[in-house]
Amino acid sequence: MTGAPLDRPVWSMLTGPQAALARGDDLAVRIDPGFGPFAAARDASVKALAALGNLALAGEDLWLIEREEWPVPPGMELLRTARLVQMMADNPMPPQPGDATCDLLGEADAAEMTALALATKPGPWGEKTRRYGQFYGIRDGGKLAAMAGERMRPAPGLAEVSAVCTWPDYRGQGLAGQLIRRVMAGFTARGDLPFLHSYAENAKAIGLYQSLGFEIRCEMVVTVVRRVE
Question: What SS3 state is found at 64?
Answer without folding.
Answer: strand
